[in-house]
Write a structure and sequence with these properties.
- By secondary structure, this protein is mainly α.
- Among the domains are: about 1-70, no CATH class; about 70-145.
- Helix content is about 55%, strand content about 5%.
- It has helices at about 20-30, 30-35, 40-60, 75-95, 100-130, 135-140, 155-175, 200-210; strands at about 10-15, 60-65.
- It has a two-stranded antiparallel ribbon.
- Helix 1 runs antiparallel to helix 3.
- The longest helix has about 30 residues, at about 100-130.
């Protein structure tokens, strides 16, 4: 997308204005925590309704104009502030080209690129740590930074299928005279009884699971 191009608007929540402390305070006073239902179905319904109600209160939907140029995922308010300070000192030097203004601008520029590098390393370190138990999710994150190779190949789908058919036919021909395999039966223990799990075991499994969410969840999962 070209910078300056009209990117349109989207209807979404303004998460940058989300106040976690106020949200937590209202959540602690809700029925979900103070008077939760006893059956599973009612508990799930109460969970969804409570979170949606609190989200509508703290971060309601709004029509937001999309920017044509998306910032890097590690670019936060700190980066924005340091960049603004750098631009301010640059303009001061352009207006009055003194040695002091030039040195102040150069010093701030070094701080800017140091901040970028720090945020970049911190972001990807946290991504790798958060997805260390989920290789698929980790690859989907890293793949964003991987140069995309050309998808044009000189082979067609028919060529691909023919290659494997030929390979299977050659294996069958090479093993046609082989004696049939003798597979001995072995006793297997039937899983007829299960011991109940403990809350500690469930908590351990949930904490080891990767952080994921979809559009059906009332609130995003913190990465």
């Amino acid at each position: 997308m070209i910078r300056g191009q009209n990117a349109g608007t989207v209807h979404r929540r303004q998460w940058c204005r989300f106040d976690q402390d106020e949200f937590s305070e209202d959540l602690c006073q809700s029925d979900l925590l103070c008077n939760p239902p006893t059956d599973v179905v009612s508990l799930v319904t109460c969970y969804n309704d409570t979170l949606l109600m609190l989200l509508d209160k703290h971060v309601p939907f709004a029509d937001i104009k999309r920017r044509a140029h998306e910032n890097a995922p590690w670019y936060d308010r700190r980066c924005k502030q340091v960049k603004a300070d750098t631009r301010r000192l640059e303009r001061a030097y352009r207006r009055n080209k003194t040695a002091a203004n030039r040195e102040a601008w150069r010093r701030q520029s070094r701080l800017l690129w140091g901040t970028y590098q720090q945020k970049y390393v911190q972001y990807w370190s946290e991504i790798i740590s958060a997805n260390k138990n989920d290789p698929k999710a980790l690859w989907s994150k890293v793949n964003v930074k991987t140069p995309q190779l050309s998808t044009s190949v000189p082979h067609s789908a028919d060529d691909f299928a023919a290659f494997f058919r030929s390979k299977v036919d050659k294996i069958r021909q090479a093993t046609a005279a082989a004696p049939p395999l003798v597979i001995d039966d072995r006793p297997c223990t039937n899983l007829s009884a299960f011991s109940p799990v403990t809350p500690d075991e469930i908590s351990k499994i949930v904490k080891a699971a990767p952080s994921k969410h979809c559009s059906l969840d009332p609130i995003p999962t913190a990465a």
